[in-house]
């Protein structure tokens, strides 16, 4: 990872992630940001305590048999780790290679994305979600200096920059930065004039990118 | 008044902390000796809570039971990875239960698998063990804060954590704008954060 991450997940989004109620596309992108961002990971540790306290407060009535939970052969056991208990050390490398590991997890090789053209200077690739899952997850590539039309959002939306950068009214978003918006927000992103931008966008609802991009093609008709 | 009393009791609860410490002892006996007796005790304390959590999440009774047993089985298998000095046991068990629940819902797409305990894995590397306040102390603080939340903040937090509803579903259920749900969540977290910062 190069550079410092400046744009983070909203606390409300982290809480939903911690609660396990974020929904598949948003939670995939939130997890990718968490892998790259120590700041958000530290916040998540605090927030997970809320889940622990609420679990502790659950009623415990009835009977369950402990023996039934144990495997017949109690051999399948994870050995003691080195320092400090956490499954840290060895696993850490998995988190530090940034966008690539995330892309691999969603079955994408960032160097060879089967891009489909949406309009001049804009390409996308839709990532398949589990059957019956609501929402939208897709990679978007925007050519250097390209300006997207101003647009709003339906429900919550997370945008994570994987390569290059973009800028909008709120600031500049570089690799690892996340933009966490909801339906009240409107913005007009512009891709970096030298690098362009590759990002992954998760939405709670299905998004009509075609509609957004079509407006780019109709400057004379007006928006 | 009653609530204030409860909070005071929680804050000055040596018994509570002691029983938690002994839970950690149980865990280290599981880790070191593979003690089935210790596992039995830990199981008695948590399995039914996890089952109740799964039921509130909408699982049917058989699935809830299965997920509770799977959760405790992970505790049995990974006991050695848990840091007894630092960790909040119930938070660890919560994250295991939550991840199993998510896995169950997403069985059909392997790529969705989240790495185990993203948070714990990394933060334990970021902080030096001796300068960190123990998670058990932090947990006591968080419990006090949650007990003092306003009814409307508590409601959204529970709907998310216990019932597993997304912010949008909560907003529909309560007839509130999505932004209002999110800001109640943020306010609740703000209180948690302030309380935890006082510990540092």
Overall description:
The complex is a heterodimer of chains A (223) and B (200). Chain A has one domain (1-223): Jelly Rolls, CATH 2.60.120. The longest helix of chain A is centred in the N-terminal third of the chain and has 19 residues, at 38-56. The model of chain A is unreliable at 81-96 and 219-223 (pLDDT under 50). In chain A, helix 1 (11-19) packs across helix 3 and helix 2 (24-36) packs across helix 3. In chain A, strands 1, 2, 3, 4, 5, 6, 7 and 8 form an 8-stranded antiparallel sheet that branches. Chain A contains 7 helices and 8 strands, in the order H-H-H-H-H-H-E-E-E-E-E-E-E-E-H. Chain A has helices spanning 11-19, 24-36, 38-56, 66-69, 88-96, 99-105, 209-217; strands at 116-119, 122-126, 136-142, 157-168, 171-174, 178-181, 190-191, 197-203. Chain B has 200 residues and is an all-alpha fold. Chain B has helices at residues 2-11, 14-33, 36-56, 61-78, 89-105, 118-126, 135-148, 151-161, 167-174, 178-199. In chain B, helix 1 (2-11) packs antiparallel against helix 7. Chain B is flat. The two termini of chain B are 29 Å apart. At the A-B interface, helix 1, helix 2, helix 3, helix 4 and helix 5 of A face helix 3, helix 4, helix 5, helix 6 and helix 7 of B.
């Amino acid at each position: 990872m190069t550079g410092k991450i400046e744009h983070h997940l909203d606390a409300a989004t982290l809480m939903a992630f911690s609660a396990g109620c974020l929904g598949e596309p948003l939670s995939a992108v939130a997890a990718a940001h968490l892998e790259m961002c120590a700041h958000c990971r530290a916040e998540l540790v605090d927030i997970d305590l809320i889940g622990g306290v609420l679990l502790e407060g659950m009623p415990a009535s009835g009977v369950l048999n402990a023996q039934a939970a144990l495997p017949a052969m109690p051999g399948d056991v994870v050995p003691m780790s080195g320092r400090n208990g956490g499954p840290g050390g060895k696993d850490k490398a998995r988190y530090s290679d940034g966008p690539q590991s995330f892309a691999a997890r969603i079955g994408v090789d960032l160097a060879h994305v089967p891009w489909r053209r949406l309009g001049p200077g804009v390409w996308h690739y839709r990532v398949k979600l589990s059957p019956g899952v609501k929402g939208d997850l897709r990679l978007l590539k925007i050519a250097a200096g390209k300006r997207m039309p101003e647009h709003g959002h339906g429900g919550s939306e997370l945008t994570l920059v994987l390569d290059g950068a973009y800028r909008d009214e709120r600031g500049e978003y570089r690799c690892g930065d996340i933009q966490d918006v909801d339906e009240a927000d409107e913005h007009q992103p512009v891709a970096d004039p030298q690098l362009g931008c590759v990002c992954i966008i998760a939405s709670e609802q299905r998004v009509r990118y075609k509609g957004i991009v079509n407006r780019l093609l109709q400057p004379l008709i007006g928006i | 008044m009653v609530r204030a009393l409860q909070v005071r009791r929680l804050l000055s609860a040596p018994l509570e902390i002691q029983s938690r410490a002994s839970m950690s002892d149980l865990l280290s006996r599981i880790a070191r000796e593979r003690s089935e007796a210790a596992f039995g005790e830990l199981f008695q304390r948590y399995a039914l809570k996890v089952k109740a959590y799964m039921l509130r999440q909408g699982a049917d009774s058989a699935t809830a039971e299965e997920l509770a047993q799977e959760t405790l089985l992970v505790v049995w298998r990974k006991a050695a990875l848990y840091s007894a000095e630092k960790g909040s046991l119930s938070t660890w068990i919560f994250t295991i239960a939550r991840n199993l629940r998510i896995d169950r819902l997403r069985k059909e797409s392997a790529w969705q698998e989240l790495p185990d305990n993203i948070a714990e894995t990394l933060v334990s590397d970021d902080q030096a063990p001796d300068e960190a306040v123990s998670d058990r102390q932090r947990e006591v603080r968080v419990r006090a804060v949650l007990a003092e939340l306003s009814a409307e903040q508590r409601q959204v937090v529970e709907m998310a954590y216990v019932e597993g509803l997304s912010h949008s579903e909560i907003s529909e259920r309560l007839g509130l704008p999505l932004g209002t749900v999110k800001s109640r969540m943020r306010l609740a977290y703000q209180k948690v954060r302030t309380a935890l910062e006082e510990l540092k």
